[in-house]
């Protein structure tokens, strides 16, 4: 595996090794189904708990805009935030990241 500074398919954001965004539209399209499954899972669990995005964001110490981006599939949570989400929502990370085949 190539070191991060030599990787050509991802772009480092904010100088932290855990935050990446897609470098090309074609990459985003390839991951689109996965990102939407994660997005739907997060939204479904949040709604089952009768939580607003703002309440969830405050509880896991992030912005409501971040939660919105996760739920629309624009971004996927970092490992740290995925663990916070799972702990707060009292579900396993497997449930949040499970991809359902159509």
CATH architecture: Orthogonal Bundle
Unreliable residue runs:
1-30
Distance between the termini: 31 Å
Order of helices and strands: EEHHHHH
The main β sheet shows up as: 2 strands, antiparallel
Radius of gyration: 14 Å
Q: What does this protein structure show overall?
A:
The protein is mainly α and 102 residues long. The chain has a single domain (4-97), classed as 434 Repressor (Amino-terminal Domain), CATH 1.10.260. The protein has helices spanning 25-48, 53-60, 64-72, 79-89, 93-97; strands spanning 10-12, 20-22. A hairpin with a 7-residue loop joins strand 1 (10-12) and strand 2 (20-22). Helix 1 (25-48) crosses helix 3 and helix 2 (53-60) crosses helix 3 (64-72).
List keywords for this structure.
single chain; 102 residues; mainly alpha; two-stranded antiparallel sheet; 2 strands; 56% helix
